[in-house]
Specification:
This protein is mostly beta strands and 195 residues long. An 8-stranded antiparallel beta barrel has the order 1-2-3-5-6-7-8-9. The longest helix is centred in the N-terminal third of the chain and has 16 residues.
Length: 195
């Protein structure tokens, strides 16, 4: 949590420092160029070597063309197998998560540029037995940093692809570990808005 707060302070400081200062030491927010975006995303990862696909929406406020503060929500559309406890007892995972996103764009006016991405939030894991009957549910904490490559297709439509890593904690069941639910994730994002 301390690392996240420090990163947020550094991003805000860098953003304000690049703004037009008209009077005093710190610029007024009214002189910062503001924008926004709404969009959708797809995330692909693995759970116990099984494909796991997440879909969900994103939205953010864009401050001075560089700093984006917003949120997202992601739910998996398939249920990867996580354990087989007997010949007729197989468990599957169904999870969803969301939270606060902080992203910083480098060279945002270039047609192709990159950004540093962070998500911090919470999720819920449902353990499903056999034919998708509900068995158990559990909440977890997630921190997901990453890097994105962005392409400015038009002034209102951008796409991005990136690699993130999901750090999961607070799981206490015996069927799937924090490490198994977390891991590397590939993402594809579509953004519409005022950039």
């Amino acid at each position: 949590m301390k690392i996240f707060v420090m990163a947020l302070i550094l991003f805000l400081t860098f953003s304000f420092a690049s703004a037009e200062i008209t009077y005093g030491i710190f610029p007024s927010l009214i002189y910062l160029e503001n924008g926004f975006f709404v969009g959708s995303q797809a995330r692909i990862s693995t759970v116990n070597s099984e494909l796991d696909i997440f879909l969900g929406p994103r939205a953010a406020w864009i401050i001075d063309n560089n700093l984006m503060i917003g949120g997202s929500y992601n739910w998996n559309i398939d249920h990867p197998e996580i354990a087989k406890t007997a010949a007729d007892s197989t468990f599957f995972s169904k999870s969803h998560y969301g939270g606060l996103e902080v992203e910083y764009n480098f060279l945002p006016f270039q047609p192709v540029h990159f950004s540093i991405y962070n998500l911090i939030g919470f999720g819920k894991l449902d353990l499903l037995l056999n034919d998708k009957k509900y068995h158990e549910e559990e909440n977890y904490f997630i921190y997901e940093p990453g890097l994105f490559l962005k392409i400015n297709l038009t002034d209102i439509f951008h796409i991005g692809t990136g690699i993130t890593y999901r750090y999961i904690s607070e799981l206490k069941n015996d069927l799937i570990s924090n490490t198994s639910l977390g891991g590397f994730t590939g993402s594809l994002v579509f953004k519409f808005g005022k950039f």
